[in-house]
């Protein structure tokens, strides 16, 4: 007897169904990497590059503008000298060791610039120091100093301070030797004028190291034996 062929039903869609998903649902990963992550890194790199380029361009522009202003105006630092320091009163209380002093200071301010003016504004602080003790203080009047101008200023200063016994002994020794070291300090708010433009306010700082022949003997005017002044700006 001939064998009868058996026909078995076949599910045609079964071969097209994967046995398991290639990647979990909601995942964007593939064999070629994560395109979304690469795009995020690329955007971040482009942003950082733009920021760096912008900062470099701004720095170059600021440097070019500063160089142009420098060569156009050729700024020079103002000059200051203490020409005279007169002690109108100096009293030392032997009981409390309190010193009361009054000074008349003559200061010369010179602006050597040909195209730069200086506005000296209110709020200045001037002082005379012996070691770390402030003997007197005063203030500078507000005024404008024009181009290539020299201005003589007379400043009255007064104050009192309690000294230590060692400080009084050192001051008396310096008096006998005829060389009393003092420091004159000035913090003055100023505005610089470049042509027609008035710049922002800065603080002009002056320090003058002085040596006078005496301090407590007022029988004759004291003499300035040495003077060295330094100048700086504080923004």
UniProtKB/TrEMBL annotation:
Entry keywords, A to Z: Membrane, Transmembrane, Transmembrane helix
Membrane topology per record: Single-pass membrane protein
Tree of life domain: Eukaryota
Broad class of where this protein is predominantly found: membrane
Cellular compartments annotated: Membrane
Residues of the signal peptide: none
Biased composition (Basic and acidic residues): 1-11
InterPro entries reported for this sequence: LEA_2 (IPR004864), NDR1-like (IPR044839)
Late embryogenesis abundant protein LEA-2 subgroup domain mapped to chain residues: 107-208
Region called Disordered, residue ranges: 1-34
Matching Pfam families: LEA_2
Ranges that cross the membrane: 47-73
Protein name: Late embryogenesis abundant protein LEA-2 subgroup domain-containing protein
GO cellular component: membrane
């Amino acid at each position: 007897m001939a064998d009868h062929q058996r026909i078995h039903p076949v599910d045609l869609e079964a071969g097209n169904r994967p046995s398991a998903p290639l990647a979990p649902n909601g995942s964007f990963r593939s064999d070629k990497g994560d395109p979304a992550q690469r795009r995020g890194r690329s955007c971040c790199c482009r942003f950082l590059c733009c920021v760096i380029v912008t900062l470099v361009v701004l720095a170059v522009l600021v440097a070019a503008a500063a160089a142009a202003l420098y060569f156009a105006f050729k700024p020079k630092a103002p000059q200051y000298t203490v020409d005279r320091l007169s002690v109108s009163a100096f009293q030392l209380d032997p009981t409390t060791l309190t010193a009361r002093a009054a000074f008349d200071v003559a200061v010369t301010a010179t602006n050597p610039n040909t195209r730069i003016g200086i506005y000296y504004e209110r709020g200045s602080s001037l002082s005379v120091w012996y070691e770390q003790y402030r003997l007197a203080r005063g203030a500078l009047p507000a005024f404008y100093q024009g181009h290539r101008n020299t201005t003589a200023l007379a400043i009255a200063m007064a104050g009192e301070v309690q000294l230590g016994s060692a400080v009084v002994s050192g001051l008396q020794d310096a008096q006998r030797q005829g060389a009393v070291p003092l420091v004159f300090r000035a913090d003055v708010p100023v505005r610089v004028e470049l042509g027609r433009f008035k710049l922002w306010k800065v603080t002009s700082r002056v320090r003058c190291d002085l040596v006078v022949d005496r301090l407590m003997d007022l029988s004759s005017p004291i003499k300035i034996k040495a003077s060295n002044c330094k100048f700086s700006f504080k923004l």
